[in-house]
Amino acid sequence: MRRRWRQQQQAEERAAMRCCAGPGPRGGGALTTLLLTGEISNDPITFNTNLMGYPDRPGWLRYIQRTPYSDGVLYGSPTVENVGKPTVIEITAYNRRTFETARHNLIINIMSAEDFPLPYQAEFFIRNMNVEEMLASEVLGDFLGAVKNVWQPERLNAINITSALDRGGRVPLPINDMKEGVYVMVGADVPFSSCLREVENPQNQLRCSQEMEPSITCDKKFRTQFHIDWCKISLVDNTKQVSTFQEVIRGEGILPDGGEYKPPSDTLKSRDYYSDFLITLAVPSAVALVLFLILAYIMCCRREGVIQLVHHSAIQKSTKELRDMSKNREIAWPLSTLPVFHPVTGEIVPPLHPDNYDNTSMPLMQTQQNLPHQTQIPQQQSAGKWYS
pTM for this one? Predict the structure, then answer.
């Protein structure tokens, strides 16, 4: 494999990597940065990092690599709980073109930083930087130099660097080479300067609430390279923080030291659920019965209810008759088509439509025709003489 790791050569010279952890309440310790890079090559190479024996890295250690053609960066700030515990990180490189792999173990020894306390901590939000750009040694050095000119401390260290995406920020649009932003926390051994205290002025706080840029006198010392959002700066003075520990006041809900839990005895009285059963069923049943009796009285014992029942029965009877007629079309003819008596002779006159007559083709109006046993009505003749 043509690519070599710059940090691997340094690890072979020093045999291990050292960093320190501070006792600050915000997990502040010395920032640890590891650059995974190598010779100039056009092969796409990705790195995989994990704690030896585990599938992922420790909680305080982060890794970022934008593309297979860019360098990978390990960074993080160990806490007090990690002091004295050697951390072995397995680094595996994959060549996406030749499918070659290489592995290297990095040992990180974490030491306590209580001898060098940094009680004054300030966190800056830089809008025109990404986390991997800020982790570069020359860029981070320039930023610490600018802060040192403003703050004038004796000791100044970078404690933590966090991407804005890890704080709930959104991925910026690819317009005008916009950056996602990065939070940089630094610690010093002297109180904050007057320039940094300007962000706490009521005028600047009001401008920040109105989404306006506050007026900071020392902003020009950063503006040439770093665009700082002064509304998001955070100043923490650990020397004035009051301990949140509260003495526990023992009461009835807390067992005394050395006490044992005593479960209730088995001789508990059984509960009778018969009354609950009656209340649950008897009351709704009684209400339903009363409503039923009231409805029966209205429908059967009052005139309005009887009329409604008769009307309902008539409608139901008519509906049943129509349904029967639609099912059986060969039913009796209506009374208008049945045989009738002749008004003069008394004989039975056959109906106009015989039973085998297809009523579907019957015309609307029947033509006049002389049927048998039909009385001929004499026609009136006009008075006058006829000539042959």
Answer: 0.55
Q: What is the pLDDT of residues 256-293, one digit of tens each?
A: 666 677 777 777 777 788 888 888 888 899 999 999 99
Q: Where are the beta strands (DSSP E) in the chain?
A: 17-21, 32-36, 45-51, 61-64, 72-76, 87-95, 101-112, 120-126, 156-163, 182-188, 234-237, 340-341, 348-349
Enter the tokens of residue 328.
């059986």
Tokens of 262: 């005593």
Residue keyed to tokens 């009505």: 377
Nearest to 5 by CA among 97, 88, 87, 106: 106
Rounded to 10 deg, the angle between the 274-300 and 303-327 helix axes is: 80
Q: What DSSP state is assigned to residue 113? A: -
8 Å CB contact between 120 and 22: no
Most confident of 31-35, 76-80, 256-260, 382-386: 76-80
**Cα 50–51–54 angle (5° rounding)?**
90
